[in-house]
Specification:
The complex is a heterodimer of chains A (362) and B (236). Chain A is α+β, with helices and mostly antiparallel strands. Chain A has 2 domains: 168 residues, no CATH class; 185 residues, no CATH class. Chain A has 11 helices and 11 strands. Chain A has a 6-stranded mixed beta barrel. Chain B is 32% helix and 28% strand. In chain B, the strands form 2 sheets. A 6-stranded mixed sheet of chain B has the order 6-7-8-3-9-10, sandwiched between helices. The longest helix of chain B is centred in the last third of the chain and has 18 residues. By secondary structure, chain B is α/β, with parallel strands linked by helices. The chains are: A alpha+beta (362), B alpha/beta (236). At the A-B interface, α1, α8 and α11 of A face α1, α2 and α3 of B.
Chain lengths: 362, 236
């Protein structure tokens, strides 16, 4: 600490430059992560929110995890009922709605039993109670819809009424509207409710494998895995997370190079310190404390800047940065910074006091 | 009189096979407590190498090194670091101060790694800076000091851990004659008063009268040991 802090204060400019780079890199990492998270949520918040209360989907094994293509037949539904007490039918159907001015909006029509814990909370208006009534995601308000407004549904070609709004219910970047049991029956075009998937709670690995062996045309997948089946989801996420991973790799190399150059410049000093009796462990400690202080300070500023930037973003820009993600990324960043200084530590260990001083040679 | 430092049949070789150079060959030197010894000789005669060996900075190829009766030549790097910290004070050719430490911190740092209690360290720092006339430079960085001042800080630093053995490699090289003499006299006085041992490499023949003995090295061998008539350094 003695050396570390005094040196940081003495060579302010040099270390402020390093700190600036760490700040910029951490800001970029956090911002892109926020964007990735925000896009994921904007795309699939309805499914992500289901993951909070439930764990698995039973889906058609030929649907490639796409809910809109999936259909769980009666036989498989019965198998699930025999094995698991709690299961909810989830119906998903994509379509369009049209207001009285004939302007169209893409929506995803969802069916869930409105008594189940999975059914979203109403944030404005009321739960639909009768046929031809729906609960819609609040993003539909951007299309000009209000509580009590009517629209034309494209499959049934009937007029529906919005009785209430809920929040964070999106599927494939379109707002979700929750239809009643009667309407889903009608949309199913028959006398029984079609199930795009059965939603199951955390039933444990064992029951999952039992079910998988018994189901004929269906499979049990985690809700998390099923996200990849949502059109566009994995493409968006993959490209953004690839950027984040590369940013981390770049950070590691940039920091390693920076600390290494600084260490090389100071080799003589390390040599003197060794000659007058400083232990290698103390020198290593000095470097690590410096790296620690610089990275913690700059990442903290980076976090602040990210939240500031997020507050200044237009509201319809998908951006979301949960604190646990911030904590993980921050930790990772500091680990990367310390990894970057390992090369310097090695160099310091190898410094020969005699060689560094130079003047001692015959 | 107790013998502080003993160098026994020290040999140092660099390189192997055809390129092998013998820098020191069978050197025997011993320094008693309270004795201030000068080593001189032409360039390349092995003076500095001998000093490095005495300071446990360089492990000799042959021979034995004893400080206060303890064998130093067989220590591992970690043990010799500890030895340097507690028993040996170094003064290098150029001051080699730590650029980002203020003058008082240069000394306090030694106290810190040697685990000297704070109060005692502060007092010793003040005493040493006073003695070397550096009190007004206490809060300066090395970059703001003159060459002579830097060298005096280096000397204060070498004394800081109260070493048994003081090793100086041309400590006066960057000082003018008067200042150089003053510094060496201060060193000699300290050595006498506290019964330490000191070895100084120097080319400056004008300083020999301050020393107790002058050892002349030539081609890695001791060619001459000359007793000097001791003068009282304070009044010279």
């Amino acid at each position: 600490m003695f050396l570390a802090i005094r040196e940081l204060l003495y060579s302010k400019l040099r270390y402020i430059m390093v700190a600036l780079i760490i700040f910029l890199l951490s800001f970029l990492v956090l911002f892109v992560s926020g964007l990735a998270q925000g896009l994921a949520y904007d795309n699939a918040s309805s499914i992500i929110n289901m993951d909070e209360t439930a764990e698995y989907f039973v889906m058609d094994d030929e649907a490639e995890m796409q809910l809109t293509r999936s259909l769980v037949d009666d036989e498989d539904q019965q198998t699930v009922h025999d094995e698991v007490d709690q299961s909810e039918i989830l119906g998903v159907h994509q379509g369009t709605i049209e207001d009285d001015e004939e302007s169209q909006a893409d929506v995803a029509k969802f069916y869930l039993d409105d008594d189940s814990a999975l059914f979203p909370e109403v944030t404005e208006g009321e739960k639909p109670s009768e046929q031809r009534e729906v609960l819609a995601d609040e993003s539909l308000q951007e299309e000009g819809y209000h509580v009590g407004d009517e629209f034309l549904e494209d499959t049934t070609e009937e007029i529906f009424t919005i009785t209430g709004f809920t929040s964070n219910q999106k599927y494939s970047h379109t707002p979700v509207i929750y239809v009643t049991e009667e309407d889903w029956l009608e949309l199913s075009g028959g006398d029984e409710l079609l199930a795009s998937a059965l939603v199951l709670p955390d039933i444990g690995e064992e029951t999952v494998s039992t079910l998988n062996s018994q189901l004929t045309d269906a499979e049990v997948v985690t809700i998390q895995d099923s996200l990849s089946g949502i059109p566009g989801y994995s493409e968006e996420q993959m490209s953004l997370w690839m950027m984040i991973v590369f940013l981390f790799i770049i950070s590691a190399f940039v920091l390693a190079a920076f600390f290494y150059v600084i260490t090389i410049q100071k080799l003589t000093q390390f040599g003197i310190l060794k000659a007058i009796g400083t232990k290698v462990s103390e020198l290593a400690n000095t470097i690590l404390v410096q790296v620690g202080i610089i990275s913690v300070v700059s990442v903290t500023i980076g976090i602040g800047a990210t939240f500031l930037a997020a507050a200044l973003l237009p509201p319809d820009m998908p951006f979301m940065l949960p604190l646990n993600l911030v904590a993980t990324l921050t930790g990772l960043f500091i680990v990367v910074a310390i990894l970057g200084s390992l090369l310097s530590l090695y160099k310091v260990k190898k410094v020969d006091a005699l060689e560094a001083i130079g003047g001692m040679e015959a | 009189m107790t013998t502080k430092l003993v160098l026994e049949n020290i040999g140092v070789e660099f390189g192997e096979g055809e390129g092998k150079t013998t820098v020191l060959d069978d050197v025997n030197v011993s320094v008693n407590a309270g004795e201030f010894v000068a080593i001189t000789g032409p360039s390349g005669s092995g003076k500095s190498t001998l000093l490095s060996v005495a300071g446990a900075l360089l492990t000799p190829s042959r021979g034995k090194l004893l400080l206060d009766g303890q064998v130093l030549s067989q220590l591992n790097p970690k043990e010799s670091t500890t030895m340097r910290l507690h028993q040996i004070g170094f003064i290098f050719q150029s001051a080699h101060l730590i650029p980002y430490l203020r003058v008082k911190d240069q000394l306090l740092y030694i106290a810190k790694i040697a685990k000297i209690p704070k109060q005692k360290a502060k007092k010793r720092t003040d005493d040493l800076l006073n003695m070397l006339g550096l009190n007004h430079r206490k809060n300066h960085y090395p970059v703001n000091l003159s060459g002579g001042e830097r060298q005096r800080v280096a000397i204060a630093r070498a004394w800081m851990n109260d070493p048994e053995l003081l090793l100086a490699d041309e400590p006066t090289a960057s000082l003018d004659a008067a200042r150089g003499r003053e510094v060496v006299e201060t060193l000699a006085l300290q050595v006498k008063q506290q019964q330490k041992a000191a070895v100084m490499v120097t080319h400056d023949t004008r300083l020999f009268d301050v020393c107790d003995r002058v050892i002349t090295l030539s081609d890695g061998e001791v060619t001459d040991i000359e007793k000097v008539q001791l003068k009282d350094p304070v009044h010279s």
